[in-house]
Amino acid sequence: MKKPLLIVLSVCAVLALCIPVIAFTQNSSAGAYKVEVSFAYTKQSGSASNQFAVWIEDAQGRYIKTLYATRFTAAGGWQRRPLSIAQWVKRSNLAGMNKTQVDAITGPTPQSGNLRYVWDGTDSAGRAVSAGEYRVLVEATLRNENHVIYTAAVKLGEKGQTTAQAQYFGSDTAERGMIGPVTVTY
Prior knowledge:
This protein has four helices and ten strands, in the order H-E-E-E-H-H-H-E-E-E-E-E-E-E. By secondary structure, the chain is an alpha+beta fold.
């Protein structure tokens, strides 16, 4: 009778020691923030379009993390089509990423619909970033040299919602309806 009671008490003591560790892990700053990026996406017909990336930079324009990039460009298409989401390719240092890193941020080009990507306040290595000002960017190749970059400032540690500002490059094309508007909630 004493032996089962001793076992139960030992298990309870071990669990009691683990509870503070579990609570600390869940309340650590990694993943403490939530920034949601959402927009309507309308898939375009033809080639040299439908490529986009969503990423985070700090207030000084230093790359922090990619939330999503279309697989064609990230998996080597940027070498065949250098105009495909060229700003993201440069800022993310895509050329320096290994296959595992590329696979972690890419996916096939989605179907038309409302898309949503979430940033948890960590950098590309999974480390928590500090509270402060960051920029959300969405770049899309509309067709060949025609592209758009949406930019929105967010303040981690505060609550808010903003609509990203669009800057178009190239000619006025019908593909301008491919992405937008981009809403960021933090």
